[in-house]
Amino acid sequence: MGKLTLLLLFITSLNSNALIPENFFQDDLTIIESIALKKKVTYFDLGPLYKGDQFHFYAKDPENRVSAEFPVPKYFYNSIHFWFNIYTLYNSNFSVLHDKKNLNIIYDVIDFTSLSKSGLNHHTKFALQSKLTLNKVKELRKTFKNLGKRKSSGIQEQNILKALKSARIKIPKGKSKRRNFFKKLSNNLRAQTGQKDNIQRGLSNILPFEKSMNKYFEKFRLPIELKAIPFLESSFNTKARSKVGATGTWQFMKHIGRHFMDVNRYTDGRLNPLLSSISALHLLKQNKQILKSWDLSITAYNSGPKHYIRAKRKLKKKNADLEYILKNYKHPHIGFASINFYSEFTALVYALAYRENFYSEPNGNAHSRLKTFITKCTQSPKWYFDNIKKLEPDARKLNLHFKRKKLKVKLKKGQIIFSDVNLNPKRYYRLPDKYITKKYPKNWAKLVRKLKCNTI
């Protein structure tokens, strides 16, 4: 595409969806970047990086809203601080450039707010933001190289030196040591997009299910703070699906999900926040029984328990916690995501505990404690939704485990249905609360095996 043609197209199509990343050649993207942004993208100096930072105040839990089981440990303090600001200060229009080994080292924060207001469609804005962030990372890597050669007169060089000083990092003396030091810093450079707006959306998404989820935590006798995990995993996005196939708010992989709930051609329990919450609580309770401490149990939710069981055995310390293992055990499978999972979780625990100070009140229907039923008859999900919609307008939203393309298929009895209203006992068996903790959801169908359907 000619550059003049692309320029005219851009000017006439700011508010259309015509521009998507797949249409761009590299130099075309550069032209659009210069037109759309001009000089509006802001590169912060070190002064306002943490403007509005309230972590130190809330980390003390001033109103005792957080369980004593989840303090802010000294060892994780800096990393929890970093993630707390990612969740409460910066929305997705910001990219924070930092050191991935030491999250106390913040080099820059890029503000893409002007890009978000440019009129470009979502895909184009994402492509531009990613490209500009990558360009900034490349610039900083050149700056690290200059510093390794003792070239420190530039503004960026001075900002990096200020960031290191602020984090109380000493630069080694000696030509070789200095070069290697800055080379490591260059390799550790990472960009993190802000998440505040995603957490805000998550608070709206959880609203219909939250009271029922709270009931499940109570029945399992597990800390309510564990509710931060689906915010960490997916920002409580019911449609979330990762590149490796993890699905739903709790991001269950298929092979793990099938252990607890039905995942087949017609239903996928991972898509239902209530079914996946019950399954996740079963899994977390098992993790706690095996690993003993919550920091390991929660981290194992992300990466599995086997590496931490192996670490305890190798270190010959049965009561080893996450801090001890991270200090004394190295394994390639315990990478950035695993190392930071508990810090991210704890940051969200405190952010959600005091959420009215960071997020606006969500809009939507807050359902009362939803009832769980098992079908006693062969029927299609569509038949149920059509017959209940006057009494339960949100019936479909509460039963997302039924796959959209299979709603007309008649399914055998034993299907799980969540409802805010009482259902006909001739067709539906109400699940007693005791079975929520005693049996996995995939086994609830056995409870109606001998029960007859009565359509009269």
From TrEMBL:
<feature type="domain" description="Transglycosylase SLT">
    <location>
        <begin position="224"/>
        <end position="320"/>
    </location>
</feature>
<dbReference type="InterPro" id="IPR008258">
    <property type="entry name" value="Transglycosylase_SLT_dom_1"/>
</dbReference>
<keyword id="KW-0732">Signal</keyword>
<dbReference type="InterPro" id="IPR023346">
    <property type="entry name" value="Lysozyme-like_dom_sf"/>
</dbReference>
<feature type="signal peptide">
    <location>
        <begin position="1"/>
        <end position="18"/>
    </location>
</feature>
<dbReference type="Pfam" id="PF01464">
    <property type="entry name" value="SLT"/>
</dbReference>
<protein>
    <recommendedName>
        <fullName>Transglycosylase SLT domain-containing protein</fullName>
    </recommendedName>
</protein>
